[in-house]
Each structure stands twice: as structure tokens, then as C-alpha cells.
Amino acid sequence: MSAASLPKPDSHGGGSRPTKGQSSRAAILFAAAKLATTKGLSGLSIGDLAAEVGMSKSGLYAHFKSKEDLELAIVETAAVIFNTEVIEPAMDAHKGLVRLRALIDSFLSYLERRLFPGGCFFAAVALELDTRPGPARDRVVQVLDRWLALLTECVVDAQALGEIDEEVDVTQAVFEIEAMLLAANFLFVMTSDPAQLKQSRAGVENVLLRLVTNAAPKKKAAARSVS
Amino acid sequence: MSAASLPKPDSHGGGSRPTKGQSSRAAILFAAAKLATTKGLSGLSIGDLAAEVGMSKSGLYAHFKSKEDLELAIVETAAVIFNTEVIEPAMDAHKGLVRLRALIDSFLSYLERRLFPGGCFFAAVALELDTRPGPARDRVVQVLDRWLALLTECVVDAQALGEIDEEVDVTQAVFEIEAMLLAANFLFVMTSDPAQLKQSRAGVENVLLRLVTNAAPKKKAAARSVS
DNA sequence: TAATAAATAGCACGACCGTTCGTTCTTTTT
DNA sequence: AAAAAGAACGAACGGTCGTGCTATTTATTA
Fold it and tell me: pTM of the prediction?
């Protein structure tokens, strides 16, 4: 019941070989998600999208009940991509700090690979959607919440593992980490300068430096911050 | 030559009493700037805007040569507002750290007062504009650059004043501070929760804590980070 | 290969977009 | 008070939007 406007239920679940319509629909949605990061969901027109994927407006439109349905499907597609490209690759890593760093690397790499020309899909459409209530907005908020919850979980686990001081304000820590990622997204999209990604990474490390339990308490005054 | 589509040159400069058309135009532009932070510059339609300010499409449109001209005027208006609401109030403060904190307080207060429903105007339209070249985009980039340059100047001055360690990477510091502000904007607009502003402030303080010369070197192990 | 279903194209619609025009009402100047 | 200028109006334009219809082509299946 979660996926919007799912096609005729396949034989029994996993699509053995995707039918023409399915792959066509997937191609449309991927192109649409990319376009939406630059033009916005509401700024994306069926005509432009049809031209982009090389079909007629009506031919494309037959795959969706309405524009709103299309938008929801685009968000769902972006959620799947975000999951497979950012989250899943990092979940192999051990819990705690290691996984946290893996998630951050994964996210920054996802920006660097320019999967979406407008940067992170959800950062791009979140602001436009937050004044336009509806299922699409709800889904976007859900993905963002889940992302922040994931970061929070890593920090909490790191505390349990003794990697991070028990006394640190977890919410504050997650805010600061997320800030570095948002800044990376914004500034990298604006400037196309990979240096922004390096600075984001360094910024996260500087945040972590403050959180880590100084098991080796006061080595040196130097090496206080990164880069 | 900088202001776009300036009206008949007034007697000699400062408008003694604004004529009807001038105040009308100003009202249009202020409403437009607010609308643009939620709908985007291209998503803003003349009809909606006319309804918002309570006039006819054509009556409103008589003030501008074209939509592009209107957009540029909106950006210019937002730049003036940003200047008077954020920058100027902070310029009374002394150079260096004091002014830096004044700028940050000023910016966060500007968010909190919700002058624009979509948060910071420039953050809102920057991403939409960066794939749409033109004078409006150029102006937005210019404002953002000037803002970052201002933060940079504060940090450099603080170094000269001995408030900040000479060895810190200024670019990195500015990135991290700007990150906190961007996160405040994004998360506060999304959640409407003032806690985000507090966390942003605390985040900035945590960044500064690392930069400040430990003239009083090792007071306590405690009080290492804010909140 | 023939039958059947799915996928796409063509076309037309009402609504709204930015834009222009001619007109009217209001303000300023003479 | 007459004349000129400014400001706002309603109507209408060509274009594009999202959205339905009806064919026609292409895939799947028997």
C-alpha cells in the first residue's frame, strides 16, 4: 500500500524480466527526478519531461493518473535511489562511529557523482514542498526524518560503544553534522567546486573531534582541528 | 545604473514623499519577494501576485517591462532588505569577533522574525537560479559572495586583533559557520521549531570555541562545548 | 502465427501563463 | 479650470499547461 500507482501486479513479486512499460516508466521517473532537482517538482512540465525521454506527452502521461500521482512516484523513485546509493552501502559498516563516517562519505560521494544535477533530491524539493501539503510532502519529510534518525542512531550507538562522550548533546551533534552536509550540497551545487566537499568532510571531522572521548586525554595542544 | 528599471528620476535623489506609483511598486515588490521564497521566482505568477496585492494583472504589470525585469527588481528589493535587516544593524559592532557574532545574531533573528515565509530569500532562490543564467542569477550570486566575504573579513580581522588563532584555516572556518546558518534556515523553515535556531547558535559557538586563541589556556576539562 | 493486451501517438479541451492594447480614473502641472 | 501625465482597469492575444479521448502501433501470449 506504500508504493503509489504500482503497475499490474507482477506474477508474484520480483519482476523476472521487466516488461516494456515497466522499464519505460522507470526511465521516465529517473529522468523526472533529475529534472526535478533543477526545475522543482511543480516547475517540471509533462511536455519538457516527454521531450527529455523522447516520447509524446500523452504516451508518457498514460503511465500516471495525474500530475500529483507523477510527483509522488518521482519522490518514491528518489527515495529508492537515496536508499540504494547512500544508505545501503554504508550499512555494511559496523555500528557507531564507523557507520556514521560511512554514511557521510556515502552522502558526499553521492553529491560528487552528480547523480542529480541539482544536488540532493530531497534538499532540493523539501523547501518547495513544505508549503504545499499532500502525500508527496509527507513522503519527503519522512525520508528526511529517517535520515536524521539514522544519524542519531549512529551517535547513540557510538556512545554505547564508548567512542563518544556520554555527556554530549546528541541532538546538537546531529544538527552540526547535518549542517555540514547541507552546506556541502548547497555550495557544491552553486559553485561546482569539489573543495566544498572537502571542507564539509573536514567540518564533520572537526565536529567529531569534539565528541570523541579523549581516552588519550591531552596528547598535544596541536592537531586540534582538521585541515 | 545599478538599479533596474528605475522610475522617473526624482527631483534630486532621496524621494521626499513617495508618489503613488512608487509606493505601489514597492508594495508589489515586497509581496513578490515574500511569495518568491515559497513558490520560487519562476513559480510566481503575475496573476497570483496581483491578487495578493489586490490589483489587476495589467495594472500591476504596467510597473515592469517584462517578467524578467520583475524578477530582477524582486532580487534587488530582497538585496536591499537583506542589507538593512541583517548587515547594517551588525555593522555598528566593532570589527572582528564581536561583529561576527552580531552578523550571526542578526541573520538568525531575521529568520526568526519570518520576514520571508520561505526563510532567507537568497537561499531560497539560489538553487533555482543557478541553472538559469541571467542578470537575476548574477545578482543573487553577488549577494551571496558578498555575504561570505563579509564573514571572511570578520574572521581575518579577529585574527589581526588576536581574538582568533593565526593558524586557523579561514576558509574552513567560514564554511563551518555558514553551514550552521544554512542548516538553521533549512530546518527552521521545514519544522518551524525555534529550537533549530538555538542549535544553530550553539553550533556557531562550538566552531568559534575551536578558533579562539586559548589565552586562558586550560581552565577546565568541562565546558568544552555549548549546550 | 493469430489473438489479445499493453504502450504510445494524435488530437482537442479548458484553464492559465506572460503580454499588449485601448480606456478610464486620478493626480499633478500649467 | 484646462491640459498633461500617471496609475489602474477589463478584455483579449498566442502559447503552454495538465488532462482527457480515440486510434494505432508494438509486445506478450496462446
Answer: 0.90
